[in-house]
Amino acid sequence: MNVKYPYQFNSLGKTATSEDDLHIQDMIYQLLFTSPGERVNRPNFGCGLLQAVFEPNSNEMAATTQYLVQGGLNQWLSHLIQVNEVSINTIESTLEVKVNYTLLRNKENQTVVFQK
């Protein structure tokens, strides 16, 4: 069962679920926006993307963020996806993270974009 993130109820009042593809996107979202140390039983989970939001835009910040995101995805989700590319764009005050990956179960290519 793939529990929907963020946690919510369906129309029957039961725990909402999501399809496999959406569940993987939810898992990527959780990884990107969880800071290391935030989870009690998994203190290393997360990549600290929210901390990058307050850093000044620079090529160095973008490269560091790309490294942290790609490393986190490879560490925590490599059993589900193969990361093809992580690109970081800073557009004025917006940080955009684009993740291109391949689902291992069916070799389908996906791209997901997050902005903060």
TrEMBL record:
Pfam families: GPW_gp25. Residues 20-106 form the IraD/Gp25-like domain. It comes from Mariniflexile fucanivorans. InterPro entries: IraD/Gp25-like. Gene3D superfamilies: 3.10.450.40. This is IraD/Gp25-like domain-containing protein.
